[in-house]
Specification:
This protein is globular. It starts with a strand and ends in a 12-residue tail after the last helix. It has 5 helices and 6 strands, in the order βαβαβαβαββα. Helix 2 runs parallel beside helix 3. The protein has 125 residues and is of the alpha/beta class. The chain has a 6-stranded mixed sheet, sandwiched between helices.
């Protein structure tokens, strides 16, 4: 699942990831609805933008992590506020790994695969 207020980004990431044949991706562009959407989908991993106008990504992550149904789902932050070097350094934001934007498909796949609880396909309905 990708949570980002930029529908162009979520659409292009969804199309690129699904074209690999390895993923099924859901998009949420409204941070206020993100927790409920995650609750209904129960995704294998969440890519979460940090800077969104309606809600801070850290707040969204905190709500998801405090939910007993969702707390085990890995969250990877996406941010244009960090450099590629910082993203690759192993640093975390609020305990979550992050990827620096702009991001290419190989980096996105590496970030997904490296943060799944167990290697498998992302399963979203």
């Amino acid at each position: 699942m990708i949570i980002d207020d930029n529908p162009d980004f979520t659409r292009s990431a969804k199309v690129a990831l699904e074209q690999t044949g390895r993923y099924s991706i859901s998009e949420e562009n409204d941070a206020g609805k993100a927790h409920q959407t995650a609750r209904s989908l129960k995704p294998d991993l969440i890519l979460l933008d940090i800077n969104m106008p309606e809600a801070d990504g850290g707040d969204v992550a905190a709500r998801i992590k405090s939910d007993p149904v969702l707390h085990r789902i890995p969250i990877v932050f996406l941010s244009g506020l960090v450099t590629k070097a910082e993203g690759k350094s192993g640093l975390h934001i609020d305990g979550h790994p992050f990827l620096a934007k702009p991001i290419n498909l190989d980096e996105l796949i590496e970030g997904i695969e490296g943060n799944l609880l167990e290697p498998r396909r992302l399963n979203h309905r």
